[in-house]
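dumping this here so i dont lose it again. seq + smiles for flavin-adenine dinucleotide
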Amino acid sequence: MTTDWDVIVIGAGPAGSVAARQLALGGRRVLLLDRKRFPRRKVCGACLNHGAVTLLEEIGLGDILHDGGAVELNGFDLRSGSRRLSLPLPSGRAISRTVLDQKLVEAAIRGGVTFQDGVTATVGEANDHGRIVHLKSTNDIVCEEPRSTLQECHPDLAAKRRRQFDLKIAHSSVALSGLGDSDAGESGGLRPRLNAVADSRLMNSANAQVVLSADGLGHPSLCDVREIRDRTVRSSRIGAGCEVAEFPAEYTPGVIHMAVGRGGYVGLVCVESGALNIAAAFDARLIRDCGGPARAAASVLSQAGFPAIPAMAEAEWLGTPALTRSTTPVAAERLFVLGDASGYVEPFTGEGMGWALASAVALAPLAGAACDDWQPALATQWSREHSRLVRRRQRTCRMLAAFLKSPMCVRWAMFLLPKMPRLLQPLVHGVSLPTPQSLAITRCG
Ligand SMILES: Cc1cc2nc3c(=O)[nH]c(=O)nc-3n(C[C@H](O)[C@H](O)[C@H](O)COP(=O)(O)OP(=O)(O)OC[C@H]3O[C@@H](n4cnc5c(N)ncnc54)[C@H](O)[C@@H]3O)c2cc1C
């Protein structure tokens, strides 16, 4: 059975949920899909920088951070070898992705979006009336809105939506093995096997005037769209993360702790629940040599002089595929790509969510126009806008990522920065680090 929509948005991370909401607020009929059941975990440093916080406020979602109990960030504690650099942060918030993404989906639903989780989507052919999206259930699910969201807030609307959303769900299940579920659908050093059970057959398809692919690293939903290509940087690191409830008091709330060592770096921050969120970028080789991400993280923390966290060994780690990658082009007929799906670089500066949110807000009017009257010029326009918003800034991050590969360079920089804070100027323009004026850099240890 085919269902018609103005817009289908694939992926309910920050990019997808916010784009879907913006479009629904503009009067479009929007279906938002995610292959995971929500709320779901996601490998991320869990830090929203000043730009991301401001943008959420500007689009009327500032309350999400308050309601979600986001922790205010005021410091950055960088350590490598025997060096330590403490920087004040102008503003920022720490919030787990489990809570943030659930709240963004709830806001999208309140804005009029129909949300279905547990559905893996694949973009199909464009036709005269729109673009086909093939749907496959990834769980045993029934047609329902996410639990304790729409049902509780708007029971009448929930019933209406359920009638609208006319999907017949085939039974299937997902068997996860290894480290836990990965963020993307392609192979990578840490990626577990995602085994759809044999009879998980194609269950359905839907049609939309416009499709937005916001499905994260490697954009798995575009596997059949030949004109859009993904290029992974060979030496790219891979991501890994977990959360622990017990940890040494030195990891203070409100501070981003960052350890840089041989083969990777690890970021640690306290989130709303009081747990410590741990997110890392590792060379695949370090994980192999150490025998897993917990040991790799322990090695980097120890090299940087941070206290050990025994709970990491028992924690459930999730992984990502290669982090540094690009997508070209970022649009095709009746199809736009945004967020991590449109390319990403290593996450040291914690900008990914800011890029995702900014892209979502910028793309919504273009996607709306494409619903009324699809024109190839809209694809060109999105490529240009995407380059202005994201690509140029990613270039700076890419240089920083290359620099971070050498802990020796990092230690030299940490030695020089307290003497010459203006050296930060080029970085500050490229990414959202504190301005030199606001920095009172101290060197300890
Ligand atoms: C180690 C690490 C640390 C990071 N730290 C930070 C940080 O501190 N601050 C920051 O701003 N950013 C950080 N980032 C980056 C940030 O996590 C991403 O940039 C951000 O999540 C991008 O959002 P998105 O909406 O594009 O994609 P995602 O958040 O990845 O969402 C994509 C969604 O699509 C779904 N999906 C995938 N395939 C399909 C399919 N076929 N059908 C349906 N659904 C599908 C997935 O389940 C997922 O929910 C970090 C990243 C890593 C790896």
